[in-house]
Amino acid sequence: MEASKKKMKFPSAFSILFIILLIAIGLTWLIPSGSYSKLSYDSTENHFIVKTHGIPDQSYPATEQTLNQLNIKIQLSHFTNGIIKKPIAIPDTYQRIEQHEKGITDMIHAMVDGTIEVADIMIFIFILGGMIGVINKTGAFNAGLMSLTKKTKGNEFSVVFAVCVLMLLGGTACGIEEEAVAFYPILVPVFLALGYDSIVCVGAIFLAASMGTAFSTINPFSVVIASNAAGIPFTEGMGFRTLGLILGGACVIAYMYWYCKKLRANPEFSYTYDDRQAFYDLYMKDIDPDAKVEFTFRRKLILILFSAAFPLMVWGVMFGGWWFPQMAASFLAITIIIMFISGLPEKDVVNGFTHGASELVGVALIIGLARAVNIILEQGMISDTILDCMTHLVAGMNGGIFIIGQLIVFIFLGLVVPSSSGLAVLAMPIMAPLADTVGIPRDIVVSAYNWGQYIMLFLAPTGLVLVTLQMLGIPFNKWLKFVMPIVGCQFVISSILLLVQVFIYAQ
Fold first, then answer.
1. How many Cβ atoms from other residues are within 10 Å of residue 77's Cβ?
2. Which compartments does it reside in (predicted)?
3. H/E run at residue 336
4. Spatial distance between the Cα atoms of 358 and 321, rounded to a whole number of angstroms
5. Which of 25, 84, 173, 205 is the most buried (most CB within 10 A)?
6. Sign of the CA dihedral 286, 290, 291, 294?
7. Which one, of 385, 406, 426, 72, lies nearest residue 225 by Cα?
8. How far apart are CA 67 and CA 73, in angstroms?
9. How many Å apart are CA 101 and CA 84, to the nearest integer?
10. Would strands 38-42 and 34-35 be described as parallel, antiparallel, or unpaired?
């Protein structure tokens, strides 16, 4: 017998997604293919286009009358002003179509196509990594960490608290999701220098940002587009969404405080204790918190420029119409400025940039692989079939049972369609009218959509979970152990708030 046995390792993010790809292929053989007709707006010709499987596209005048004829209760201005950009599912148009089975060849092509589709996100990640590499070369991180650890000694949780609050606000305001990857390279070394582990890093950034996004108040990529697709102003239901944000945020912060307190008392309590050295080496190999690095004016200026990139990014997403190409360009511009003021030789800054970018290749590829799962499901044309089945399950129920049923339906749909805006335009035109049949306001269905899908997106490997875990080297099973209490809290909070709204409306 061996003196010591090797511990069984949980599959990597790549292996998990590969298995899910195989499952997705199997589903295209098991679930009947089907399709709703889809409505889109052509701004060039100022008319609507209806795409129905198997027949030529049909053109209709872009008028309120056309929307009424199609039973779409959405203001015309939401199409003409560009608020709704994606095709809208048309109610009562679902039809079964010939089966679209997928095979291994389709899977290989989807892996390549998925990577191509997320090229803008990958470029953003590479530029971010390059920026971090350049700043590491300047010694600015080292000097800044030394200063921070001295100022927060004895009050380390204040940093975790501040980051959680900022992420909660960013999530509820503009739906920080993919953008959150930009925060890891700067904040992870901070948390490590304060004596925390990888779980604290993912909790303060991803968990808090996701909770904020789950209880979105003005997020244009989820609650606003869902409200528009449901045919109501996004301000309806704002009070309960804000209350949910406060309750959900309090749960996250309290949970983080409990975990951090346990961790400070006993480092072996860490859920990722076995992987601590590999994680430390990954993020701290170019940083020595004990080094005597002078915090010069030049280094302070570099950190100020670096820090300015993040509020600039948030402003661009919220008010400037930015997406990943614009965010990548702004980060690249700031990186070039830092290169010029660093005082380092040209070869050093270039090597720093390429080295930093190379370390995020795995993360970028995970995003492409996750997109491949969505491509298989889309090409298999089973998502609409699943949605049609879900609508029949909840139709005609009692108001309270109906809304909890909606919550559960959207939890499931969050796995099939992990895009918040994609799920909104697919499901809301179908699900929102069901609220009319059971006598409750449509804004409650919008809340069920938002809260339900994000309960699943804490867990769904097809979302950003595996991207985050890949960046931090956390096994998926360790993440499940950590996040399940928060998933339970969100489900309870969401269920209670939905039932209270139904009860109030019924009075």
1. 12
2. Cell membrane
3. helix 324-341
4. 29
5. 205
6. positive
7. 426
8. 7
9. 31
10. unpaired
